[in-house]
Write a structure and sequence with these properties.
- The structure holds two protein chains of two kinds.
- Chain A has a single domain, classed as MetI-like fold, CATH 1.10.3720.10.
- Chain A contains 13 helices and two strands; from the N terminus they run αααααββαααααααα.
- Chain A has a two-stranded antiparallel ribbon.
- Chain A is flat.
- Chain B is 37% helix and 27% strand.
- The two termini of chain B are 32 Å apart.
- The model of chain B has no long low-confidence stretch (mean pLDDT 94).
- The chains are: A mainly alpha, B alpha/beta.
- Chains A and B meet through α8, α9 and α13 of A and α2, β8, α3, α4 and α5 of B.
């Protein structure tokens, strides 16, 4: 067949391509919406969800106390974990091979043993360390180890190993040439770390630490097995006496979803702030110079 | 000229594992002299330069700059391995310019130049900034003082790096292939800054493949080959009429 456009010529010299149509998107989209509506209807009308019970317990005292403990556990453990992580990263960079081996062994152990097992070990610490003491002072381990303190110790030790890996990766992300240039100016090792390495590594460290924290928020629910007093522990105590299992688990889910969502927003904010691509940063350089020590 | 050389390199041996990269180098650099190190890649010229700044630890021999030793100190008439603090003090007065610039990526051009003054020389901030600004002006980049390295061309970055090293008022400047990573059209601006530094009387050791620069600016040229200092001589003489066959071959290849 021959025509004017046989060789792909376009008659209108100013033509724009006609957009493709996507009827399949519309069909599959409608089907998905229908399915979602069905699930929502089922959830709303299913008797066993007992939404009135859900409403009653959403802001009840045990729920809010448990929520406070969950947040407290997460924040305190995260802070201690970062401190442990810094120590591990510094030990890992040390010139002393014993320190490096210790850091490696620590990370290996706490990465390899499940958090649940670590929590149980911490909770039962009295079985293998009956007394702890400094100098002439000593205490019964049993009186020190409560569900809460065991939770803090277990979560911190476990998260510390991961924080250590994140921080070490951050240090390693700073090119060797940066250190060499700093050394060639006559900076001492500690100054190089503080002035050159850490400010550059922090951008690499912050985003995965945010992720780690979100994971930790959810991981705190594991402390319910040792009576950590967190949100899930409290909910279990309540449904243990009134058997409203599903509504209370829905209450727990609601609060986890809420705090994780809030934390995710915070994470996005931090990621943006510390992203390396920032033409904006150059613009504020002058303002920065005025306030920051060089 | 003073009889005592500013830089004395004596019997320097450097090994990486089982490979001997430097096989006993002897070299003097006089005060105010510009020495270019040339030679094929793998001949050990960059390694020697890094040894002078103690970025590499030497396995035998010594390197003395003025009255201080690279990575070593004199105690009771003997050389002992230096502490971190002593090494840092030694490096303060030996400036280094790298092939890949190595500007601090999180700092502006001005901060890059000032940071050694505040963190090493401990000058008050405003004095450090003033000196940094002057150092940037010397390399013609004062207008870019608030730019971050990623917004500068390679040539501009290298000029900032030179200003950063010069601001420390070094006794000796080391240049490790300062134009090898640059686009051809940017080489000239860096070489002309280096030429001005040389004319200012700075003692310089320059590892380079720029034979014209070596011939015109250097006082002497050392040709290195397989970890040995194969031939040393006045720049023009060595480049225009080398005595050894190996030097002649190398120069034919690059030149």
């Amino acid at each position: 067949m021959t025509s004017l456009t046989a060789y792909g010529e376009v008659r209108d010299p100013y033509a724009t391509p006609v957009p493709r149509r996507h009827p399949s998107h519309w069909i599959s989209g409608c089907l998905a919406l229908l399915l979602a509506a069905g699930v929502a209807y089922g959830l709303a009308t299913n008797e066993s969800f007992e939404w009135s019970v859900f409403g009653r317990y959403l802001f009840s005292a045990p729920t809010l106390q448990g929520l406070a403990v969950t947040i407290e556990l997460s924040l305190v453990s995260q802070i201690i974990a970062v401190l442990i992580g810094c120590a591990l990263a510094l030990l890992g960079e040390s010139r002393n091979p014993v320190f490096r081996a210790f850091a490696k062994a620590y990370v290996g152990f706490f990465r390899g043993v499940p958090l649940l097992v670590i929590l149980l070990i911490c909770f039962n610490a009295a079985l293998f360390v009956p007394q702890v003491g400094i100098g002439t002072y000593s205490w019964d381990t049993n009186t020190l180890i409560t569900g809460f303190s065991a939770a803090i110790i277990g979560l911190s030790l476990h998260e510390g190993a991961f924080a250590g890996e994140i921080i070490r990766a951050g240090f390693m992300s700073v090119p060797e040439g940066q250190r060499e240039a700093a050394h060639s100016l006559g900076m001492k090792r500690r100054v190089v770390m503080r002035v050159i390495v850490i400010p550059q590594a922090i951008r690499v460290i912050i985003p995965p630490t945010g992720n780690q924290f979100i994971g930790l928020l959810k991981a705190t629910s594991l402390v319910s097995v040792i009576g950590g007093g967190d949100l899930l522990t409290r909910a279990q105590q309540v449904y243990g006496s009134n058997f409203k299992v599903i509504p209370l688990l829905m209450v727990v889910s609601f609060w986890y979803l809420l705090i994780v969502t809030i934390a995710t927003f915070g994470q996005h904010f931090l990621e943006k702030k510390y992203s390396v691509s920032s033409g904006a940063r150059a613009g504020v350089a002058r303002a920065r110079l005025a306030e920051e020590p060089v | 000229m003073n009889a005592q050389p500013l830089v004395a390199i004596r019997g320097v041996v450097k090994r990486f594992g089982h490979t001997e990269v430097l096989k006993g180098i002897d070299l003097d650099v006089m005060q105010g002299e510009v020495l270019c190190l040339i030679g094929p890649s793998g001949s050990g010229k960059s390694t020697l330069l890094r040894c002078v700044n103690h970025l590499e630890k030497i396995d035998a021999g010594y390197i003395r700059v003025d009255d201080e030793y690279a990575g070593a100190v004199v105690r009771n008439g003997e050389l002992h391995e230096a502490s971190d603090a002593e090494i840092a003090t030694y490096r303060e007065r030996v400036g280094m310019v790298f092939q890949h610039f190595n500007l601090f990526l999180h700092l502006t051009a001005l901060e890059n130049v000032a940071i050694g003054l505040t963190k090493v020389r401990r000058l008050p901030r405003h004095e450090a900034l003033q000196r940094a600004r002057a150092a940037l002006a010397d390399v013609g980049l004062e207008h870019l003082r608030d730019s971050y390295p990623r917004h500068l061309s390679g040539g501009q970055q290298q000029r900032v790096a030179i200003a950063r090293a010069l601001a420390m008022e070094p006794k000796l400047m080391l240049f490790d292939e300062p134009t090898s990573a640059l686009d051809p059209e940017l080489v000239g601006e860096v070489l002309s800054v280096m030429r001005r530094v040389a004319e200012g009387g700075m003692t310089m050791i320059v590892v380079t493949h720029e034979m014209r620069f070596a011939r015109d600016v250097a006082d002497r040229v050392a040709f290195m080959d397989q970890g040995l200092n194969a031939e040393v001589g006045p720049a023009r003489q060595l480049i225009d009429s080398p005595t050894s066959e190996r030097t002649r071959k190398f120069l034919n290849h690059v030149g």
